[in-house]
Specification:
By secondary structure, this protein is mainly α. It has 4 helices and no strands. The protein has helices at residues 32-52, 55-69, 72-83, 87-93.
Length: 110
């Protein structure tokens, strides 16, 4: 063990290390609303990825939700309602796809 003195405030006298970051702001500056929006966007992207895998994978996902959460009757009613939607009408309204991902301006115009 070294006998070199440690800088002041570096360690607890009882031996527990203490880290001083000098940060005055909380590390997580995302609001609850922003956090919920990020979760929603992530879910949308996952749905797009699962959709590309085909109907069988979606069927297996719904069956798994039923097995683990007992949602069978409710899932079946909702699935029947969604199956009755008119695909041409959805396409005409733009409701057959997610909106474009939000863009953020980085830097300045000067």
């Amino acid at each position: 063990m070294s006998t070199t003195p440690l800088p002041p405030g570096c360690c607890d006298p009882d031996g527990a290390a203490e880290i001083e970051t000098g940060l005055e702001q909380p590390v997580n500056t995302i609001s609850t609303g922003q956090s919920q929006e990020l979760l929603r966007l992530r879910r949308q992207r996952h749905v797009e990825q699962v959709h590309r895998l085909g109907a069988r994978v979606i069927f297996e996902l719904l069956n798994e939700l039923d097995r683990h959460h007992g949602l069978g009757d409710d899932l079946d009613r909702r699935l029947e309602a969604f199956a009755g939607l008119d695909p041409d009408l959805l396409a005409a309204l733009g409701a057959d796809r997610f909106p474009a991902a939000p863009l953020r301006l980085v830097g300045s115009a000067t």
